[in-house]
Amino acid sequence: MTARILDGRATSAAMLDRVREEVAEFSREHGRVPVLATVLVGDDPASHTYVRMKANRCAKVGMESRRVELDAGISTETLVKTIRELSADPAVDGILLQHPVPGHIDERAAFEAIDPAKDVDGVTRTSFARMAFDEGGFASATPGGIMALLDAYEIPLSGKHAVVVGRSPILGKPVGMLLLARDATVTYCHSRTRDLARHVAQADVVVAAVGRPELIRGEWIKPGAVVVDAGYADNRGDVEYEAAAERASFITPVPGGVGPMTIATLLAQTVRAAREGTEK
Ligand SMILES: Nc1nc2c(c(=O)[nH]1)N[C@@H](CN(C=O)c1ccc(C(=O)N[C@@H](CCC(=O)O)C(=O)O)cc1)CN2
Question: Which residues form the Tetrahydrofolate dehydrogenase/cyclohydrolase NAD(P)-binding domain (predicted)?
């Protein structure tokens, strides 16, 4: 079997076309465009690239982005204060704090300073709980993007065994919850899992979200499985792509799979936040 590609570039482009229309409609109705504030701490080149990509995509759909760049040495208190100010600013609709922040900063405290109504990246406890209870909060951007990609290809999930490799709060954990909400049977694997290969080999759907290039060997993939690779370290996936593609029915490439869907989801959720903000 040779897998069909789950094309995140094409799917996200279609999503962004819809976002562009929604932005135009919002602008006609409210006389302004939605605003996404991005907060970046420090000099990590990859993080700078991702924030720049987000700002570029905002411009392409007619949305405004406001970039806040902070010195690597700032304290948690200063970061929290900056984010609280953005949360209180009526001109800002959505807030994104680029992960990771430098090690001395309490990232959780910084995430929690985001008003849940503006948490378009789905990183707060409130968003997580709303996701877990299926109460319509903002999804974490990458998990939301993964679900949108699976839906675009009409991949059935109900009753399927999904194995999520990784348990980070903004990726592995929430994607498992979203799969569970769609009636998949979910197994989480992580760094202490014994015999990862055995678990992966049982999966109808594999979501690789560990950030360790090619950790998942192609020969582990069950023939016909759907493989979603959310790895992005150095633009390399967590899955041994060529070998996995020989066995899978569908597979995401890296680049061109999950990454573009992450940004499209972030922007879609920003327009939604802007709309919901005006309904209050
Ligand atoms: N606050 C957040 N921080 C981080 C997130 C996140 O969702 N929220 N995810 C990652 C990084 N990330 C977004 O921030 C991200 C990574 C990769 C891509 C992407 O589209 N990659 C392209 C390839 C890159 C290129 O074209 O140069 C691809 O896969 O095709 C988007 C977003 C960690 N931090």
Answer: 140-276
Residue 41 pLDDT greater than 90, yes or no: yes
| Centroid of ligand 1 to alpha carbon of 169 (angstroms) | 16
**The whole model's pTM is what?**
0.97
- Residue 17 CA to ligand 1 center (angstroms) comes to 20
What does the block give as tokens for 197? 């290969």
Task: Please give the CATH number for the structural domain made up of 141-258.
Answer: 3.40.50.720
**pLDDT digit string, tens, across residues 134-172:** 898 999 999 999 999 999 999 999 999 999 999 999 999
Q: Which two tokens stand for residue 73?
A: 């040495």
Superfamily of domain 31-117: Leucine Dehydrogenase, chain A, domain 1 (3.40.50.10860)
Residue nearest to atom 18 of ligand 1 (CA): 259
Annotated binding-site ranges? 166-168
Query: Tell me, what's the pLDDT at 223?
Result: 98
Q: Which two tokens stand for residue 177?
A: 């919850």
Residue nearest to atom 14 of ligand 1 (CA): 50
